[in-house]
Design a protein that fits this description.
Elements: H1 15-46, H2 49-65, H3 67-76, H4 79-102, H5 110-135, H6 141-170, H7 172-191, H8 208-221, H9 225-239, H10 245-252, H11 256-278, H12 287-307, H13 311-339, H14 345-397
Helix pairs in contact: 1-2, 1-6, 1-7, 2-5, 2-14, 3-5, 3-8, 3-14, 4-5, 4-7, 5-14, 6-7, 6-11, 6-13, 8-14, 9-12, 9-13, 9-14, 10-11, 11-13, 12-13, 12-14
């Protein structure tokens, strides 16, 4: 056991963190099953790239609309119970999807439920990500984020594979039932955590509007946080191919829902490999440089996937996209936790998630639109090539990101308003 002179560096020594980690696995399993099932069901019934793109657009709208109130809620109330309520709401969404499918309702009924899922995510993402820094000391942040990424990716391997098997065996009804069960299980795990009380800031908010804008202003004025988030936003916005996988699985590679499940799991297989390595290696001495090189690798792997004509090679390149993306995730999440004062973590996490949500969900819409115009292969090639343009632009706009030293040497910035 570490003494007072030996700070904790292994977050697994903290029981509450282990509980959160186990609960997150269940939550991610449910989310992955939901995502794969919706994508396959919508494309199988419509054969429309536009409909696939609409899945992402519908879910990102409430994330953007609710970013500011969600951040304030997370900073003003016990983050544990905010997270519990979101998981209960997600379980209700799973039941709604089950009923829509069971009664054979028109496919359009799925989209209002996805809108609700997006609203749930707007609150759950900043709440859950803000809990970790309250459970472990700063000396354990890097490894805690590596473990968060590792368990996420393990669940993201099992979830799509399970979804593919469920879809091939019995269709979406059972899959949506599993979504509700996993969400309820995560809620129970969160309810068992110790209270997460937010420390009051050193200065009261001048007015309500100023308080609401504090998280956004903090991100926009950060020397390193803004360029790191911007890099990820545009790289994934253009380079992500996840939304197109039902098209590749059904029309190009002809591997059906089971193959789709493994294709969705492949990036996570690469990511968990990298995450396990990260838990055993020292922190990056030049994290900004590693971030940019990882994004370049992500783009190159996306191009390789677009050109693949065999299922095996497609899996290999998808694994590589996950491997490179994991480097970005760990560096970016650690940077958010290191430079953000605790009194602002909920609002900054909410703003951070809007960027991530924009890159993933709006990227899915972009993929659907370009696939409708250029086909899935053309869309993936264009996206992979655009990541190189994004890295060049970020390097020119924020050259200091290339030379920034170890993240542990950075200190939280003092906000003007908390």
């Amino acid at each position: 056991m570490p003494t007072e002179l030996e700070p904790i560096t292994d977050p697994l020594e903290v029981p509450a963190f282990r509980r959160l980690l186990a609960g997150r696995v269940l939550g991610v399993l449910g989310r992955q099953i939901l995502s794969v099932s919706v994508g396959w069901q919508v494309y199988d019934r419509t054969q429309s790239a536009w409909a696939l793109g609409l899945i992402g657009l519908v879910q990102v709208i409430p994330v953007v609309a609710l970013v500011i109130p969600a951040g304030v809620v997370v900073d003003r109330f016990d983050r544990r119970w905010v997270a519990v309520l979101t998981q209960l709401a997600l379980a209700a969404c799973g039941v709604a999807m089950l009923e829509i499918t069971r009664v054979g309702a028109p496919i359009g009924w799925i989209f209002p439920v996805l809108l609700c899922c997006g609203a749930v995510t707007a609150f759950s993402a900043p709440a859950i990500s803000s809990i970790t820094p309250n459970l472990v000391p700063p000396s354990a942040f890097v490894r805690a984020n590596a473990w968060n990424a590792t368990t996420f990716e393990l669940a993201a391997i099992a979830g799509p594979a399970a979804a593919g098997a469920l879809l091939a065996w019995s269709g979406p009804v059972l899959a949506y039932g599993c979504v509700s069960v996993f969400a309820l299980s995560f809620a129970l795990a969160l309810a068992g955590l110790p209270p997460v009380r937010v420390r009051a800031g050193h200065q009261a908010a001048a007015d309500r509007a100023q308080e609401l804008r504090a998280g956004l202003r903090f991100v926009l004025t950060s020397r390193f946080l803004l360029p790191a988030i911007t890099l990820d936003l545009f790289a994934v916005l253009f380079g992500g191919v996840v939304a197109l996988l039902p098209m590749f699985a059904r029309d190009l590679l002809h591997v059906g829902p089971t193959g789709l499940g493994w294709m969705r799991a492949a990036p996570s297989l690469g990511a968990v490999t990298m995450a396990l390595v990260t838990t055993r290696m020292p922190p990056f001495q030049r994290p900004g440089r590693a971030l940019m090189l990882a994004v370049l690798g992500f783009g190159a792997a996306t191009i390789g996937f677009a050109l693949s004509r065999s299922f095996a090679w497609a899996l290999v390149f998808l694994c590589l996209t996950g491997l490179f993306d994991n480097v970005s995730v760990v560096i970016r999440q650690t940077l958010v936790q290191v430079v953000t004062p605790d009194a602002l973590r909920g609002r900054v996490s909410a703003v951070h998630f809007v960027f991530i949500g924009l890159s993933n969900e709006l990227g899915a819409f972009e993929s659907g639109v370009t696939a409708a115009l250029l086909g899935p292969v053309g869309s993936a090639l264009l996206g992979g090539g655009m990541t190189f343009v994004v890295v060049a632009w970020v390097l020119k706009r924020w050259p200091e990101l290339w030379t920034v030293g170890p993240l542990a040497h950075l200190l939280p910035s003092e906000p003007d308003v908390v």
